[in-house]
């Protein structure tokens, strides 16, 4: 009698599946996430990074953008011209002032609205919708409304005359300071809703026992907001500051649609200046150089804000 016929099958343990089959199933390749992220990789590498590289190449040329014309290689001449361009520095200054004013006002309004919505306010749901609705409205649809309101014969001047304040009427969009104020007002009107939603969510995460302890220690509502709630919303504030800074550097829609960068470059931003330089003056090389500078500024600001937040978190 054969020995192999009497011995149990070593590859088939009692009450289980064959070990070989188990091993084969274990070696079977499992699905990974590459097919899901491949489209995003193609878009990022093939479109965004290629566009950035091509913009860097065009920034070294003197070219009007037409394929039939032969571009002239200038090296860093466009960047040298940019650093000596007063309009570029004016646009950069406008961006800095715009960021400080809009971020400060949006933060104050958003935090105040969020605190009010967490209190016993009648029809809170309606107020939330009213505050947030401007965020989802396109500037292209609302810019004509702002132009009409602040026109020399618009609703604002009409209202001022009706209440006897004729001395306050003026051509709001024709003055440098007032035109910038209108652009800031439109931006604040649109993005305060997003600031409000983020602060409202941050306040919802605060433990109620902490607020009750503050009140037991004798802190009033304002003291509790300033000393307890505001510090606990620091992460939200930093995130909004970072987004606001990058958004200010890329500002284009409101100043272009309301004032087109005027009057006399009073509301010129880097985005509008790039647009005018490229399409109106047909200087694609110089516009690309400003675009590269804008990208570097946005990256530097983002990295700075991130490192600062990380350093403060460790401290």
TrEMBL record:
Pfam families noted in UniProt? BPD_transp_1
Compartments reported by the entry:
Cell membrane
Q: Which InterPro entries match?
A: ABC_transporter_permease, MetI-like, MetI-like_sf
- The UniProt record lists the ABC transmembrane type-1 domain at 92-305
Record's PROSITE patterns?
ABC_TM1
Keywords, sorted A to Z:
Cell membrane, Membrane, Transmembrane, Transmembrane helix, Transport
Is Cell membrane tagged as a keyword?
yes
Per its UniProt record, what CDD domains does this chain match?
TM_PBP2
The UniProt transmembrane annotation reads 33-52, 96-117, 129-150, 170-203, 224-249, 284-307
Membrane topology of the entry: Multi-pass membrane protein
Query: Per its UniProt record, what PANTHER family does this chain match?
Result: ABC TRANSPORTER PERMEASE PROTEIN, DIACETYLCHITOBIOSE UPTAKE SYSTEM PERMEASE PROTEIN NGCF
Q: Which family does it belong to?
A: Belongs to the binding-protein-dependent transport system permease family.
Q: What is this protein called?
A: Carbohydrate ABC transporter permease
Q: Which organism is it from?
A: Promicromonospora alba
């Amino acid at each position: 009698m054969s020995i192999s016929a009497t011995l149990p099958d070593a590859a088939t343990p009692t009450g289980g599946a064959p070990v070989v089959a188990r091993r084969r199933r274990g070696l079977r390749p499992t699905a990974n996430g590459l097919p899901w992220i491949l489209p995003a990789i193609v878009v990022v590498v093939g479109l965004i990074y290629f566009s950035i590289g091509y913009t860097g190449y065009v920034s070294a040329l003197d070219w009007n953008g037409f394929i039939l014309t032969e571009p002239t290689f200038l090296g860093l001449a466009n960047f040298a011209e940019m650093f000596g361009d007063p309009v570029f520095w004016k646009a950069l200054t406008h961006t800095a002032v715009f960021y400080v004013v809009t971020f400060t006002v949006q933060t104050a309004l958003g935090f105040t609205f969020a605190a009010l919505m967490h209190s016993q306010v009648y029809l809170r749901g309606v107020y939330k919708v009213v505050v947030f609705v401007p965020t989802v409205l396109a500037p292209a649809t609302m810019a004509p409304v702002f132009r009409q309101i602040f026109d020399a014969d618009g609703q604002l001047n009409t209202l001022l005359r009706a209440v006897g304040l004729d001395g306050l009427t003026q051509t709001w969009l024709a003055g440098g300071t007032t035109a910038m104020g209108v652009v800031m007002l439109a931006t604040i009107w649109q993005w305060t809703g997003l600031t409000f939603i983020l602060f409202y969510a941050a306040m919802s995460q605060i433990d109620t026992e902490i607020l009750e302890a503050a009140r037991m220690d004798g802190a009033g509502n304002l003291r509790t907001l300033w000393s307890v709630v505001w510090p606990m919303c620091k992460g939200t504030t930093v995130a909004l500051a970072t987004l606001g800074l990058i958004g200010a550097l890329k500002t284009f829609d409101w100043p272009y649609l309301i004032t087109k960068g005027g009057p006399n470059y009073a509301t010129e931003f880097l985005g509008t200046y790039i647009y005018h330089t490229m399409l109106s003056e047909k200087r694609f090389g110089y516009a690309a150089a400003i675009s590269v500078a804008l990208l570097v500024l946005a990256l530097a600001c983002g990295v700075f804000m991130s490192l600062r937040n990380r350093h403060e978190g460790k401290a």
